[in-house]
Design goal:
2 domains, Chitinase A, domain 3, Helix Hairpins, two-stranded parallel ribbon, elongated, 7 strands, alpha/beta, five-stranded mixed β-sheet
Length: about 160
């Protein structure tokens, strides 16, 4: 049975935009590039042809991946603040011993992007936060050792 994929409405829209760009813009561009490379003749030693074929394989793989995710994803709707952390929650945490607040949105792995402060519910921090409430202390095992966070806010 395939693993359940979770997407927020924003994440779904973002993946749909990427898929549309790949299918309607990148795929036709690559087809032109391939035709031009084939027209150069001798495909065995044609670097442009081999590069275009490699790009095409990657592109088709990404298209298939996005189509599969969008077809099977469970849409997560977050209806405002909740008492406990769940997928779709925006959580503000403070590491024990510091005053530095960090805010993360808990999302599915398909839309996780730490640079945008979106972490997967399967990541060490995301998994540790799930089900906890404001004020709870949460222990997280990381490669550099155990960290303790206090949940300051849940939206």
């Amino acid at each position: 049975m395939p693993e359940q994929v979770f997407l927020t409405p924003e994440g779904k829209a973002e993946l749909e935009r990427e898929l549309k760009e790949l299918v309607e813009v990148r795929r036709p561009e690559l087809a032109v590039k391939l035709r031009e490379a084939v027209a150069q003749g001798d495909l065995k030693e044609n670097a442009d042809y081999h590069d275009a074929k490699e790009q095409q394989a990657f592109l088709e793989g990404r298209i298939q991946y996005l189509e599969n995710i969008l077809r099977s994803a469970q849409l997560i709707t977050h209806n405002g603040a909740s008492e406990d952390v769940r997928i779709g929650s925006q959580v503000t945490i403070v590491e024990e011993g510091t005053d530095d607040e960090e805010t993360y949105k808990i999302v599915g792995p398909a839309e996780a992007n730490p640079r945008e402060r979106k972490i997967s519910h399967e990541s060490p921090i995301g998994a540790a936060l799930l089900g906890h409430r404001k004020g709870d202390k949460v222990r997280v095992a990381t490669p550099s050792g155990e960290l303790v966070f206090r949940i300051k806010a849940i939206k």
